[in-house]
Design a protein that fits this description.
single chain, TIM Barrel, 343 residues, alpha/beta, 8-stranded parallel barrel
Length: 343
Amino acid sequence: MTLPTQRLGRSGLNITRLGFGAWAIGGGGWYFGWGPQDDADSLAAMRRAIDLGINWIDTAAAYGLGHSEELVGRLLRELPANERPYVFTKCGVVYEGRDPMGPPLRSLRPESVRKECEASLRRLGVECIDLYQFHWPDQTGAAMEDSWATMVKLVEEGKVRAAGVSNFTVELLNRCETTRHVDSLQPPFSLINRAVGNEEIAWCEQHQTGAICYSPMQSGLLTDSFTAARMSTLASDDWRRRSPEFNEPNLSRNLALRDSLRPIAKRHNTSVSSVALAWVLAWPGVTGAIVGARNPKQVEGWIDAAGVQLSTQDVDEISAALRKTEAGRGPVTPEEISQERAS
């Protein structure tokens, strides 16, 4: 299968518009874990994604306390060099000396950034990380300029090819940009979580920075099979049990929004998941979407999203459903942002 690609900002990386998200394959036993996960299923899911044309995997040191990166490294070793996907990973969420079931420390201290990079290179078994990203803004008091300068050094040393950030505000993006161009931003963006549609994605478009959006299906809520009853079956250490979007009153609104996508999915002969992804990909300034899967079947449920072209009627129906259900937050359409700014 040939998937459409797009340049990731000015990085020189040409990526498929869908990428494999390796958060859930980190498994359980940590604060943002997804409960037990079978490694064989994880590897099979990544292989299937690559077989179907995806050319990048997004992981992080924090996912499973390094386990996700280790699995990606195992996959890379199985593949011929010319078939290996780009590998994107992240630093800045630190558990050392902390209870893994408690909140981590968000540290971008220069020495921590470098230490994490070296550890990720070892787990992945690579000499250079294709895209290295700050996972979250720092909460230790480290100056962003010093943290970003360390990232620049890692690029200069050949340990990192492209440098990006995740969950950053426009103010932080501007501070980084004064030292070195930000190759990418990884924000949360979905039909439910639309907040970054206001400013951050527009900033990326204006600065030729790639925008690769995570949780575009809202961590499973915008899939065909999720139900309210499913909440009771989630593992005790699944972080979604704590998420406001997975609990009332938001849950009912979110599932009503999901149900409103079914007629559109039927018209396109595709899944609800693919419609939700197509909406994200259609937003101006979005380069790609990071989509997780815990087994090959889940990959097959959304892989066609990159080829789904929503019509004006589809978009209007989705906008009406967003207003009717009052699900989530943020702008409903890009035009809505323009109208607000004009007024």
